[in-house]
Specification:
Helix content of chain A: 25-40%
Largest interface: A-D, 45 and 45 residues
Number of domains of chain A: 2
Strand content of chain A: 15-25%
Order of helices and strands of chain A: EHEHHEHEHEEHEHEHEEHEEEH
Oligomer: homotetramer
CATH architecture of the largest domain in chain A: 2-Layer Sandwich
CATH class of the largest domain in chain A: Alpha Beta
């Protein structure tokens, strides 16, 4: 059994790690930390886990957590992980769900406005694109970049992309477990709320990852929206190509690129969020618009699963040389 | 023109007063107060009012507000109104949307756990039951009591009621404009949340008002729920009668009781919230259950209109001897 | 491996059986029937199951289905099951999700207005109350009766109940996979819709099952509502007792009654739907109202799981002498 | 008083015309037609109008309707209006809410796959761009084109636009009052559903109207989505300009272009749907993305009001030389 800890387990990604790990045959969760809820049963906060876990939140030092675990998931605010991860790595592997290790320190500092104190490199844990096995520290991708990069990667890898507009629609759980105006029911029900139209921090990850594939030759725009759903990110990728492309060839390109990637489902029909809800799948659909060299690619993921905790477990499986799908091979919850 | 002020205009009831008053031909809103937003345009907070009002929030004393107005709506927290109303009454009429004047001071103190400093009497502003004209101070009813009392009043007035269970379902705007866990979208979407199962403070109003009609002979239970809707309260009144009653007669009783009450619509079909949304109507439907002396009465109101701001304007009309429907004769927003 | 068939697999209960059975270690689904979709891949309709199942809908005779299976779930319309079940029983065990075997034939005929052609008895598959093991035919309970009966059974078993009002709030998936006015988004969003206020057919099951416990001494009312949620039934049981009862004793009574019932969670806080969503749990909360001999019991279930397909699998486990929780021990999907 | 008829009054646009016209001081609705509901009270279908209108649906000929009216709104399916409008025009003015007169007949035939039988010209009733006064026949714009064209018109009029991607998010009422799979609550709740990614018929209107302004020099893409809201269209216009543009100048350009257009509100903050719900406003927000010559413009409208019935009444006002805002100067319903 892999002994696993969750550092910062009171938020939605912490709860989701626990939910998913309860179905994992090779894992035992041995410690879940929370400064605020230390001493309280995990199920007093995550009520859906009542009867499933008998753990209470603890408040130990990172070193103690590392000692007790083979692997630790860090689910702490951006800027906090880098203060914890080095100690954890002394005795455990780490999958970090914050943004701290996703970008080079100087880029991170520019984008997040925080000083970076730990220059070590991590693998960017998008396993459909990077080789994760063999690493001790994984930077788990942002939710939006997961949906956006998977939409465009095959075209970028062929250097076909000239201009990409990612218009993403996210469920409200992406705003976290703490109430605020953006998650206030009367404001968000019956609404669609665009935000950070040109300045969202996840754009840097999209630019970085697509740039690794095409050398940065494409112009990349990203605009996020919140929609009145709890879970899910649907990304509409308006992808303009350098030259006219054939629909059939594009599809073959995607099939080849995602061959043997079990969580990618290339669909014949336009994806929807219920089909991936609660699951680690990324559903992809492609349609070409012959008029103007546009390919419209739709991706649908659950932001808390493939966009966060599920992908983290997928990365864990790879690090421990388990089948990538172990404990994650579950259908979505529909309807 | 009636010159009107709103004391405490930053919440949902304040915004709704402004929305509704914008259609009132006899009213000019001359002052809207807010300690927190003083100096800011009203439309910077209530964005739907942009272009409609050119007012900014002010922060004057109650005396100043009273001086400038013929009538003031007080929309401040429970316990705060009684510190403002006496001064306002020196020069203006007052309709208080808080609970402060709805119950006798001693009952108020027991229920709300606050000391009461102003023993003056107000009329309970449920105009289908009380005569409001001629009063200077109106205690505007609570949202739940409005739906519950209107459901049972005709039966109570005939002393037919032996046991009443009011099971109410409210939209989330009832929790107010401030974000909190009960209004956090990911918690309330796809949920139904009962609360204060046996102890909600509005029960005292229901007991008081039905007691005025039947001398307190009925046993009264009230359990509220929040449902994933923004507006509306649907009340399912399970009304057990002392003796077997005939469905036709019950309906006639309701027709007679609510004759010439323009905002009561006795429906032939089961009410729904969209039909009253944004309007001051209370839709009522009656069905008798012959098996067990039960009458099921459904009432549907918009909690912010007939349950708060619309009823307050209805009361204002009556105080100023206008037709009760002036400025309020609008259909619901459906779908 | 238990070889399982689903007769009528195109609806929501069929899809949910497939979703849940995909996690069951002792089951293989060998046939899923649909007259309408025969020949099409199961995942073309149930898109969340893409990659999980490689089956296509078939359209065989009941006898053929029975021959190929150890157990068949029948998920066909009320009145249709009785024409299929006898043939299936020749070679397989059957769990019927329709209403056909829940009530005595004559009661069924009165309530459903259909002739009953198969007088054989089935066990009523509410395993917290009935012994299911040893039976070949299970009548899987209705969704509302599951929530209502579990709320009141401990009190009824002690003959403490004098009057019960079950006010239930259901998600819209209960209306099925076929579009109709009651499931039309613009009509049901931002709404609460009561229906069949005094005449819902599920009342007969509630009366029957509580009557088995208390000899029919309690008066029973049931009023259902649809709320804007996809899944879940929250039941508010207003239970009036013959005599004043002590809150502590009531709780102990429930603890004792539900001892060793793994899917019953007696909660310390008021239940909500997300905590049970997608899971087979029934969360229960009890609060006494000393004023008027009322006990308010809240139950929360997922109507498609504990209210239908999950309970059916729980019954299957019992029939095959597996642990009741096999393949079902999953937390809810929250948020 | 202008005597007005509604031809085809049973759908959502018919109901919305009635709702809005009830507040119009210069209009009397004299006839509402419906083949299907002829003879039934209008309020039996549009229940929110109970007490407001005392009309019943009728089923007269177009000639009869024209005779009784000064103006007729036609709210019939695409392809049906052209069979009715010529007769109506014999004696009344017409505002057609179908697509029949929005495009040149040959374009209409290519896009809608229907033969066009009436070559007469109509004014395209987007009053912020076209002069409507003086016309007898108005082609009321599509809901998506209203939001998209208003987003880009100022840039197009200056020939600054090189490439426009309109990514629109619509409420479900746009799918109409008839239940279907796309409006089935369990499928659309908690979902975002893109459709007709590259082939939606409204694109032709957008191309036509922007082309009138810039000679067709911009490449135009349009992709619609349905979001779980009843009303509203939020359009994210990703507008790429020929040259780098200054944010301040763009804003001034929009201010100048929309000067004296009362229903356009240029906002300082990002629009949302509640602020326009039920109102005829189009809220617009502009943000420039210096990295890549992109201007992101957000527009928010109520699809049933500015996107259909409200705009139709605005056009009516202009035809009858009333102030454009008569009867329409109402704030949105928020929250």
């Amino acid at each position: 059994m892999i002994e696993v800890g969750i550092f910062g387990g009171s938020g939605y990604t912490g709860g989701e790690l626990l939910r998913l790990l309860s179905a994992h045959p090779e894992v035992e969760v041995v410690v879940v930390t929370s400064r605020r809820f230390g001493g309280k049963p995990v199920s007093s906060l995550h009520r859906h886990l009542d009867g499933i876990y008998d753990l209470s939140f603890e408040n130990p030092t990172p070193a103690e957590v590392g000692d007790r675990c083979d692997l630790v998931f860090t689910a702490v605010p951006h800027g906090s992980a880098m203060g914890i991860v080095p100690e954890l790595l002394d005795s455990a592997k780490v999958i970090d769900l914050s943004a701290d290790y996703r970008l080079p320190p100087r880029v991170f500092e520019a984008i997040y406005g925080l000083e970076h104190s730990d220059a070590r490199e991590a693998v960017y844990g998008l396993p459909e694109i990077h080789t994760v096995a063999g690493h001790d520290l994984v930077a788990n991708p942002g939710c939006y970049p997961t949906g956006a990069v998977l939409a465009a990667a095959p075209l970028a890898s062929e250097r076909l992309l000239s201009l990409a507009v990612f218009d993403s629609k996210s469920g409200i759980s992406g705003a976290g477990a703490e109430p605020s105006m953006v998650s206030h029911y009367p404001e968000m029900a019956e609404n669609v709320q665009p935000y950070k139209l040109t300045t969202h921090r996840h754009r840097a990850e999209i630019v970085q990852e697509l740039g690794r594939l095409d050398g940065g030759s494409a112009s990349i725009s990203f605009t996020p929206h919140v929609v009145p759903s709890v879970r899910g990110i649907l990304t509409t990728a308006h992808l303009f190509t350098r030259e006219s492309v054939d629909g059939e060839e594009i599809r073959k390109l995607y099939e080849k690129f995602y061959k043997n990637k079990p969580f990618i489902r290339l669909r014949e029909t336009i994806p929807s969020l219920p089909a991936v809800r609660g699951s680690n799948f990324c559903d992809i659909y492609i349609e070409t618009d012959d008029d103007n060299n546009r390919v419209v690619v739709i991706t649908a993921i659950d932001n808390l699963v493939k966009g966060a905790s599920g992908q983290a477990i997928q990365n864990m499986n790879l690090i421990f040389n388990l089948d990538e799908t172990t404990g994650l091979w579950q259908p979505g919850l529909a309807p």
